[in-house]
């Protein structure tokens, strides 16, 4: 995992903070020995957190304050001598600006925890995809390159009205992504109707989706509006579309083609203005190719725009950030004595393979917040005490895939999207390169040649 950046301001002219070498194991430390140097680093670099050994002189406090405030998104942690706390001006500065403070000599374990928490809270200010309408239970959170690309794709897809197919493992946030697209689209004021295709009762799918007229069947005592019609003017989200029975797929296809529906027992088609977003954790392309329960024509109708939700193990930079996000989200459920995650807990989370993705992380953090009776959450509280070696076992295959993907993207960038040139550079055939591009879901900045 890439080291996080830390700005360390030490204007004392004395030796470095004892134990700084230990911090360097986890942080990319940029040191400033005066206020001007600190200001330049803040203006030209992207820092989320700063560690400041505070000046003792009263005359320099206002200048220090100006520097601390110029990093608008930064969270600062202060270091100071204990007698300095007797000064009201310094206490006021710490209270107004700093995320936390430590008296010297600093407890390095506590300081490491404090810096990690400060980094996570500062990153949240710019890492969430803000809600632009009705806010859901959880926001989309991430600072990793994969999530930044995902946020960019969501904004692009929201600007058009074409169908979207969202693919990804269970627990990756497919419904959140669908809601984000809806909230940013011209249909934001319309309804967002969610249908779990895998949970619909087999004999009632037709009437649930399309509705029915009074007297259409025994027990139909009044007209019922179906889910599709209920989404008129808004967005219909078809979750687990891969579980929709084959015989029902033709009805959905007809709706997508004609933008009309027929209620069960109805005589006239009804016009419906709906944008469709579908999601699945299955490989629909493979199911179509092998003729295993999914119609090819429906697949192409749904797969106009495709959005891939990365698994949590593919965005390791976000694991600690998400953990702190949900730790604070569940603040009302935790004991006042629980202050955060211990170092071993953070290591265990970074080593875990997260087969349940973000949903699993939410459940583990929430359970730990409720059950922990110590100041710091441990791997035992998270239920990860026996799983700390799992991630290392998987690392080789993941590293190989990451290296191959990076090499392909680098070659395509150098060739300006020219597949033939990139294939020659990589010493593979065009066919092989196209297959790898599809495998790693690499998007071209410029249209590739020959397509």
Q: Can you walk through the features of this model?
A:
The protein is of the alpha/beta class. It folds into four domains: 4-127, Rossmann fold, CATH 3.40.50.2300; 140-308, Rossmann fold; 313-388, Helicase, Ruva Protein, domain 3; 395-439, Orthogonal Bundle (Arc Repressor Mutant, subunit A), CATH 1.10.10. The chain contains 19 helices and 16 strands. The protein has helices spanning 20-24, 35-44, 61-70, 88-97, 108-127, 145-158, 174-183, 205-210, 227-230, 246-258, 284-289, 296-302, 319-329, 343-351, 357-371, 379-382, 390-414, 419-426, 430-439; strands spanning 4-10, 27-32, 49-53, 75-80, 100-103, 128-129, 140-141, 164-167, 192-196, 235-239, 260-261, 270-271, 275-280, 305-308, 340-341, 376-377. The strands form five sheets. Strands 2-1-3-4-5 form a five-stranded parallel sheet. A five-stranded parallel sheet has the order 9-10-13-8-14. A two-stranded antiparallel ribbon has the order 6-7. The two termini are 36 Å apart. GO terms for molecular function: ATP binding; sequence-specific DNA binding. Residues 140-370 form the Sigma-54 factor interaction domain. It holds the Pfam family Sigma54_activat.
Please summarize the sheet with the most strands.
Answer: 5 strands, parallel
* Average pLDDT: 84
What number of domains? 4
Kindly report the spatial arrangement of strands forming the biggest sheet.
Answer: 2-1-3-4-5
First CA to last CA: what distance? 36 Å
Number of DSSP E strands: 16
Strand content: 5-15%
Specify the number of helices. 19
Q: Which second-level CATH architecture of the largest domain applies? A: 3-Layer(aba) Sandwich
Find the structural class using helix and strand composition: alpha/beta
Specify the CATH class of the largest domain.
Answer: Alpha Beta
**Residue ranges: pLDDT <50 for 5 or more in a row?**
132-137, 388-392, 447-451
Shape: elongated
């Amino acid at each position: 995992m890439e080291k996080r950046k830390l700005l360390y301001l030490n204007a004392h002219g004395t030796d470095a903070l004892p134990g700084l070498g230990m911090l360097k194991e986890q942080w990319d430390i940029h040191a400033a020995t005066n206020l001007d140097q600190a200001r330049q680093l803040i203006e030209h670099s992207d820092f989320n957190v700063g560690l400041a050994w505070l000046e003792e002189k009263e005359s320099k406090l206002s200048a220090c304050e100006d520097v601390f405030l110029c990093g608008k998104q930064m969270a600062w942690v202060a270091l100071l001598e204990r007698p300095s706390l007797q000064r009201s001006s310094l206490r006021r500065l710490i209270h107004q600006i700093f995320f936390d403070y430590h008296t010297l000599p600093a407890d390095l374990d506590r300081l490491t925890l404090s810096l990690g928490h400060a980094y996570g809270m500062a990153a949240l200010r710019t890492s969430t995809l803000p809600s632009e309408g009705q806010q859901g239970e959880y926001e989309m959170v991430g600072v990793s390159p994969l999530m930044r690309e995902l946020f960019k794709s969501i904004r692009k897809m929201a600007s058009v009205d074409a169908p979207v197919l969202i693919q990804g493992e269970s627990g990756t946030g497919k419904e959140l992504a669908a809601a984000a697209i809806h909230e940013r689209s011209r249909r934001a004021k319309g309804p967002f109707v969610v249908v779990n295709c895998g949970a619909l009762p087999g004999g009632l799918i037709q009437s649930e989706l399309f509705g029915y007229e009074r007297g259409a069947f025994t027990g139909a005592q009044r007209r019922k509006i179906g889910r599709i019609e209920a989404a008129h003017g808004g967005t219909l989200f078809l979750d687990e579309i891969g579980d929709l029975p084959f015989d029902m797929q033709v009805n959905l296809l007809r709706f997508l083609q004609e933008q009309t529906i027929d209620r069960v027992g109805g005589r006239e088609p009804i016009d419906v203005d709906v944008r469709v977003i579908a999601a699945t954790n299955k490989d629909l392309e493979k199911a179509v190719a092998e003729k295993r329960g999914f119609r090819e024509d429906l697949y192409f109708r749904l797969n106009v725009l495709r959005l891939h939700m990365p698994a949590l193990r593919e965005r390791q930079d976000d694991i600690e950030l998400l953990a702190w996000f949900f730790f604070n989200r569940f603040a009302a459920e935790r004991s006042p004595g629980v202050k955060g995650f211990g170092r071993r807990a953070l290591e265990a989370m970074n080593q875990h393979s997260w087969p349940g993705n973000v949903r699993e992380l939410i459940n583990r953090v929430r359970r730990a917040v409720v059950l922990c009776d110590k100041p710091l959450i441990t791997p035992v509280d998270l239920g990860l005490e026996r799983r700390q070696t799992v991630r290392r076992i998987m690392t080789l295959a993941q590293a190989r895939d990451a290296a191959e993907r990076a090499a392909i993207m680098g070659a395509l960038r150098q060739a300006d999207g020219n597949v033939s040139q990139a294939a020659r550079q990589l010493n593979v055939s065009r066919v092989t390169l196209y297959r790898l591009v599809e495998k790693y879901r690499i998007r071209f900045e410029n249209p590739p040649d020959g397509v």
